[in-house]
Amino acid sequence: MKALLRPLVLAAGLALAPLAAPSILHAAPAAGLTQAEKEDIARIEQYLGGVRTLKSDFVQAGGDGSLVRGTLWLSRPNRMRLEYEPPIRDFIVADGWFVFYWDDELKQQSSAPIGSTMADIILRDKLRLSGDITVTDFVREANVIEVSVVQTSEPGAGTLTLVFEDAPLRLRKWRIVDPQGLTTEVALLNPQVGVQLDRDLFIFREPASARRRD
Fold first, then answer.
1. Which of 107, 125, 141, 213 is deepest in the core (most CB within 10 A)?
2. Does domain 2-190 have CATH number 2.50.20.10?
3. Whether pTM exceeds 0.90
4. CA torsion, ordered 125, 126, 130, 134, to nearest 10 deg
């Protein structure tokens, strides 16, 4: 279970995706967007740009059928925290410059600059789904919109699909396909937008249990 959990945790947090890893993905830009799709993307950019803070419970589904729950805090630009319900004690923190992943079993952390991770796509201050981000797919069904994007310079680093409810427009989930083709989906439950968040949430600190180890 632990061997499967670590990549799922990282995918859930959009974190630490290796930019130059060998990949089975062959993402290509979506063949020309229609005018209606371009207008929807403009609405999505405006909506996401207006989400400065967010707190939400979530359910994370792995490709192996596993389900785990947790809480997400997000403060744009470049700050995020993701924690899981016990017995999982791994967590992810983006502190404004780096994304940290705490592996509680090994009692150690890994880190990477935010700009080198998938987290950068939704944590940046001014979000545009163009330029260094490429839209690879756009799907609209009834009141649901799905937009899939990759990093333009490194499409093999993974694909992020943002899933929205429409009327009104709201982010409901995201889905990551990693360089090995594994899929992780995170569904937001009762998200609260525009809430006041303690900045201490976005400071990485080792758990007290790690500091007490021999």
1. 107
2. yes
3. no
4. 20
